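User: I've been trying to design a sequence by hand for this structure and keep getting stuck. Would you show me what you'd pick, starting by listing the structure so we're on the same page?

Assistant: Good idea, let's start from the same input. This is the structure you sent:
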């Protein structure tokens, strides 16, 4: 799987494709299992069968999928391979976006960066102003910033991968979704977290990695907002049962909001536990026990997350490292939920005319677009 992602990354970073996008990909346009009425790429049976939030994140109890959102990749691959209109729109959209991205310096966006382009507006242009299709276009490669390449099941997915976004893409930077930015307190706290992680003793490289993932600044990870916006919009559109959502029928905005944000919290905590297990080799050490006790406290929603008994057994440098790592974990669990709230609010509001009912939770609407 990793070799496949590397090959696709090399393809994406190659020279611009010769000819216009339609010329390059025209051999892939027919035949199609699904032909959308009036070429508007409307809601198809592929969309209807998609399991939504569960499938995007591939929640599996205490085990997380670390390398890719396999359910989302399968869904978008199926959409591209079997819907002429959506494939053509996606190819045109990502071709134009890539030309814009190639003008920028390649790097992952930090939390305090701002997108130079309203990528959602660009997606609307390529979707005949259909908000569902626009958000679906963004989510094809915007549900994560690594490991998003479609499975090369045919001509269309293979061709679309060649114009997929680079790591520097405006798609992944705060504000790419109609200018919706992270609130200032979150940005300031994220920068503080990154600074404290960078201050960890360089001799303890594994602790530094646990704290900052080898990044100089706290990363934007704006794909959480994009993925949630698509899911919320889709939740507005779908009218049939979604078996994967624990036998729930169509979810209200508020129910979907609580389901999604709680799942994000559970996912992140289990993900951190995996990182601790892989990073701290001695499971009997006070550092290992301290990090896991801190995660227990975060999961239980305690205001004090630092395990005093384990901290007392550490030297000064390790104490500072444990405190910085747990502060990052606590912030990230809260921040991920905020990111998903932002996306859910945007998606529900953007698609209000597709399947309409009111949002009543004021915290959700705090980030709604005008």
């Amino acid at each position: 799987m990793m070799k496949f992602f590397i090959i696709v990354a090399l393809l994406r970073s190659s020279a611009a494709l010769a000819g216009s996008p339609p010329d390059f990909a025209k051999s892939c346009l027919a035949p199609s299992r699904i032909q959308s009425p009036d070429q508007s790429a409307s809601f198809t049976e592929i969309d209807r069968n998609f399991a939504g939030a569960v499938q995007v994140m591939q929640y599996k109890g205490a085990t997380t999928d670390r390398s890719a959102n396999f359910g989302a990749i399968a869904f978008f691959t199926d959409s591209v391979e079997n819907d002429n209109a959506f494939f053509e729109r996606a190819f045109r959209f990502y071709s134009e976006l890539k030309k814009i991205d190639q003008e920028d310096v390649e790097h992952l966006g930090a939390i305090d960066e701002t997108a130079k382009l309203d990528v959602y507006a660009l997606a609307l242009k390529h979707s005949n102003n259909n908000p569902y299709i626009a958000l679906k276009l963004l989510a094809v490669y915007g549900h994560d910033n690594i490991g998003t390449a479609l499975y090369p099941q045919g001509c269309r997915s293979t061709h679309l991968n060649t114009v997929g976004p680079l790591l520097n893409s405006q798609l992944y930077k705060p504000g790419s979704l109609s200018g919706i930015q992270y609130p200032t307190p979150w940005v300031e706290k994220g920068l503080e977290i990154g600074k404290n992680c960078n201050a960890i003793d360089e001799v303890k490289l594994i602790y530094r990695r646990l704290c900052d993932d080898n990044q100089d600044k706290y990363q934007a990870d704006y794909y959480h907002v994009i993925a949630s916006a698509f899911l919320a919009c889709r939740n507005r559109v779908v009218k049939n049962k979604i078996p994967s959502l624990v036998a729930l029928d169509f979810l209200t905005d508020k129910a979907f909001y609580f389901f999604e944000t709680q799942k994000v919290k559970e996912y992140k905590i289990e993900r951190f536990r995996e990182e601790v297990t892989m990073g701290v080799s001695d499971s009997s050490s006070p550092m290992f026990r301290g990090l896991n006790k801190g995660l227990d406290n975060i999961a239980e929603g305690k205001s004090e997350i630092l395990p005093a008994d384990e901290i007392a057994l550490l030297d000064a440098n390790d104490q500072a490292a444990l405190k910085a790592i747990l502060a990052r974990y606590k912030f990230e669990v809260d921040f991920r939920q905020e990111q998903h709230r932002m996306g859910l609010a945007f998606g529900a509001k953007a698609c209000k005319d597709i399947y309409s009912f009111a949002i009543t939770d004021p915290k959700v609407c705090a980030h709604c677009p005008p």
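That's my pick for every position. To get oriented when you compare it with your attempt: Residues 2-15+35-365 form one domain. The mean pLDDT is 77.
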